[in-house]
Design a protein that fits this description.
Nucleotidyltransferase, domain 5; single chain; 5 domains; 19 strands; five-stranded mixed beta sheet; 20 helices; GIY-YIG endonuclease; alpha+beta
């Protein structure tokens, strides 16, 4: 242990706070929190360590501490610092978008939509659904069962849903508020698990249709019954108290930790999810950190059940909800189920994914290959256009070998020579890094551009203008158009012989291509769709935007019927548009 570390340890206080470990380059490589900074931080250096903790400790040149008022404040600060600095030794959950909700419009004609958050007070929310497919399956079923409004914009005449008996047609009928109120209550009851009434009604309709020899209609009713039964079967454990709760359980094996989550809404199981991470430090601390990260992007239910009293002790000051640890009863059955899911996820991981697990080692080998420090944070750029039309740029970021989608960026190319890829590259890189520097944000360890020396020089000119000094290399392809090596600013080529590095870089390159092309396609489709709408009498800017939101692709727009167009446009405008699309 160095004298510098000995002096820092001697000055530690018996107070709650956050500690930041730095390497010789001053980079933050680990952020942690402690109820007692003196006890927690000193044990890293005064006790023997193994595995990844040992490796981290050997890299620490110094540490700093931030004293907090209490452990809850320390936990919040820890998470903010991790999300800001992305320290390489902190375990991060993979980027998850917010889980979807089914939302029921409160006022006016009620209708159902999928929403990614529950902030809009004009809706009642059910969920969240950990599986987006399950949310869409459920909303499709609800729309079949309950004849509420289906059209986003009220048409001037009845649509197909009315003729199928799935809509009471507010477009032509004045619906009494009491009718809508009854449907809303039935939908809420259904989402709370009470669907026997609807099941029996549909079964009676199926029998009636069959008796009347209306076999196609009977078959549709049968499919609806099977869908309800399937949903009921999925709820293999239903709690009687109708609570919103999350069940957490974790297991560890061979240096890896699995955290399983069962999400219940109103007592009904909506879905299961598991995370696999490498073990680092104490499992109790690590699980508490992972759960904290999870609730950064997901709503906290009225009850959280965890198979560890130690984790509950850490989270009790942070989560404003009921935290429960149980040893018997119904909830214990749920804990066992979550624990089995965690074990099963570990088994599957060792069978399929472990080969790709040690990305940090790959990055270390990549750094040695091109003679730079280990590039834990890599950013890649790509441009896309169609013969100079709709030019865009894109940047993707990888932290510790995993995509960091919160850092992805899209760019509209602003210069006039859109065919000039070098100018586009220079513009995008200058804009991105001059902004990062002005906002005092962290810069990456490595920039990769798709191309040879000219692309590299364009990137370096942009970096010089932005006053940013970042390692920049080009991805060089062979005659089969496969990534074969890396090129530095002097034109030196470093062949990639390590298959693991090859596959990691190929994955990164594929991701930046995908991101750039998808943005370009979206922009082009919008422009082409809006332009084909020009000259149609009655189609103003607002109606054009409404059509684009519903049909973002021209081929999809060409396949719609006049009746479908009449659901969002006046009949005469719909007819004129239909004629133009098919002329």
């Amino acid at each position: 242990m160095t004298e510098k570390l000995k002096n820092l340890i001697a000055n530690l206080k018996h107070l709650p706070g956050v500690y930041l470990m730095h390497n010789e380059a001053g980079e933050i490589i680990y952020v942690g929190k402690a109820k007692d900074l003196q006890k927690r931080v000193s044990q890293y250096f005064l006790r023997p360590q193994v595995g990844k903790v040992f490796k981290m400790v050997t890299e620490v040149d110094y540490f700093e501490t931030i004293i907090c008022a209490n452990e809850k404040e320390a936990l919040v600060l820890e998470m903010n610092l991790i999300q800001t600095h992305y320290p390489r030794y902190n375990i991060l959950l993979k980027d998850d978008s917010h889980y979807p909700y089914i939302a029921l419009k409160k006022k006016g004609d009620p209708y159902l939509v999928i929403k990614r958050n529950n902030k809009d007070r004009n809706y009642d929310y059910f969920g969240p659904f950990p599986n987006a497919g399950a949310a869409y399956q459920m909303i499709d079923l609800l729309n079949k069962i309950f004849p509420i409004r289906k059209c986003k914009n009220i048409p001037h005449q009845t649509c197909l849903y009315y003729h199928l008996g799935q809509c009471i047609a507010p477009c032509i009928n004045k619906i009494d508020e009491s009718v809508y109120l009854a449907y809303k209550e039935e939908i809420k009851s259904f989402m709370n698990g009470n669907n026997s009434k609807q099941y029996n009604e549909i079964k009676a309709k199926m029998v009636e249709a069959s008796n009347n020899l209306e076999f196609e209609k009977a078959q549709e009713y049968k499919k609806t019954l099977e869908a309800i039964k399937h949903i009921n079967d999925q709820q293999n454990v239903e709690t009687n108290d109708k609570k919103d709760r999350d069940i957490f359980a974790f297991n560890a094996k061979e240096g890896y930790l699995a955290l399983a989550i069962l999400n219940y809404s109103k007592g009904i199981l909506l879905g299961k999810h598991t995370y696999i991470v490498e073990e680092f430090d104490d499992n109790i601390e690590q699980v508490a950190e992972l759960i904290t990260q999870y609730y950064d992007t997901h709503p906290v239910p009225s009850q959280v059940v965890i198979n560890s009293k130690g984790v509950i002790d850490i989270l009790s000051d942070y989560l404003d909800t009921e935290l429960v640890s149980v040893t018997r009863g119904k909830l214990q059955e749920l804990i066992i189920s979550a624990s089995e899911n965690a074990l099963n996820a570990l088994d599957e991981y060792f069978l399929s994914a472990k080969v790709d697990s040690n990305k940090v080692e790959m990055l270390e080998n990549l750094g040695r290959l091109i003679n730079i420090k280990t590039p834990y944070h890599i950013e890649l750029f790509d441009n896309s256009h169609l013969q100079g039309s709709y030019p865009v740029g894109a940047m993707v970021a990888f932290i510790n070998g995993e995509p960091a989608k919160k850092l992805y960026r899209k760019f509209r190319i602003e210069h006039q020579e859109a065919r000039d890829d070098l100018k586009s590259m220079e513009e995008v890189i200058y804009r991105h890094y001059s902004r990062l520097i002005s906002e005092e944000k962290k810069l990456p360890d490595l920039i990769l551009v798709d191309g040879g020396l000219n692309q590299i020089k364009a990137a370096l000119r942009a970096l010089e203008s932005a006053k940013a000094d970042i390692n920049t290399f080009g991805l060089v392809k062979n005659d089969k158009h496969q990534t074969a090596g890396l090129m530095d600013r002097d034109g030196n080529t470093y062949p990639i012989e390590d298959k693991n590095i090859f596959f990691l870089l190929t994955r990164m390159q594929d991701e930046v291509h995908r991101f750039a092309i998808s943005y370009h396609t979206s922009k082009r489709n919008k422009a082409m769709t809006l332009s084909i709408l020009d000259g149609v009498e009655g189609l103003g800017d607002k109606r054009k935007e409404m059509i684009y939101r519903n049909y973002s692709d021209i081929s999809a727009l060409k396949n719609v019927s006049i009746q479908e167009l009449e659901q969002i446009l006046p009949s005469d405008v719909a007819e004129r548009l239909y004629m133009k699309l098919h002329s």
